[in-house]
Design brief:
single chain, Alpha-Beta Plaits, alpha+beta, 2 domains, Aminopeptidase, 5-stranded antiparallel beta sheet
Length: about 500
Amino acid sequence: MTNVFSKLEPTALWRYFELITQTPRCSGNEGPLGEKLTAIAREHGLDLRTDTVGNLVILIPAAEGCEAWPTVVLQGHLDMVCEKNNGVVHDFERDPIEVTREGDWLEAKDTTLGADNGIAIAAAMAMIDDAPPRHGALELLFTVDEERGLTGATHMGPEMLKGKLLLNLDSEEEGTVTVGCAGGGDTQMILPLEREAAPKGRWVARLSVGGLTGGHSGLDINKNRANALRCLGAALDHLNSACLSLRVVSLGGGNMRNAIPREAVATLLLDPTERERAETCCEDVLQALRVEFGVSDPELNLRLEVVDEAPGQVLAPDCARRAVALLLATPTQVTAMSREIPTLVETSTNLGVVEETEGGLRYTNCTRSSIGKALEGVRQGLKALGELAGAIVKLEPAYPGWAPNLASPLLARFQEVHLELFGKEAEVAALHAGLECGLIGEHVPGMDMISFGPTMVGVHAPGEKLHIGSAERFYHLLKALLLALEPPK
């Protein structure tokens, strides 16, 4: 183990977490990690189940004398959100995550850490070497492509699981047990691009938004953080009013549909005589954005810089106008709070990515809600907006939420164990985020489920942190719960 992990306990947990951080595993590229876990399982003589999409189940037999205990599913996802700061050299398909320790935290300063959901995989795999002395059969379910839309859980067949007790290990706050989550669905608006020859004698500029805090598009949406794409839209709108010569070459930003975008950029052409006016306009926009977002995004910056290479084409004026209008008009915010739980976000939507594709400029929106009709209502609004702008709109299949069951026997047992270990019961909560429990529950009717995990901050953004002591307590809680899940006598 490297110096970061060498003195951490329990050894089994951190040994597997180190292995996971050293293995590339962006969404869609989970194969290398799956192969390593498969090899470890086979070395221990354990049976496996796989399916056509890449989900993996590793089977750990019950401890001797515990064959009659219920089978328990330990579940996490193999993939991670791969984000890095602008200008950082890191190849997520090849390079390991560089983990550092700052006091009681593990972090990756310039990239995401992948503790979401690597710590779950590590805790589950550690049961191969370090399970409690008594436990029922364990099914370690590792799904793929969770971060891009819960693809693995969506296409998992019911034959993959035999157990009816599910411990989802994808929560991010110690002392909380999650019993429900929002459903969600993506909306793609593809704006066809019309181009024409670039005018001569213009200076070429790169307009960039950066330094934003970003974060999870569900868990952090209520923090009112700046969205880089909306900031870019505001700047382009003001520039268009101030500079009659403005022509847009390209625009885009964001990397993940389920992350609040931290960076966005546009390439522009301007008449040299309007350069000073453009620079003044950008400075005015920056000051206005800092007034609005100075608390949530203290490092927010907006830069207008000269670019050497001149483009051959620009967007036609009407096409550019509609492209900017979509940046400004597409909602990216909380749209409703829960009527039953005032502190819980009920419905939200986030403009996560704008990128050029073969079909045009694609705007990807991630919408969440604990109410199915509300979810579809927002998506229908996005569809209407996109079509008004001349875009081709596609509503991706939605995934279901997970309805809380406060009478769950598994929840009751968890609370007993939590009280015994920590002197108090855990706070019961529902999340405004997509957990795979709703989908798994549809595939396996009658599944009793809870979700818990250690404290993490800044997930889905560079600087993501995992609290070391919290991870250790989470691991001991998991083992104690497995020990307590014996059948009624």
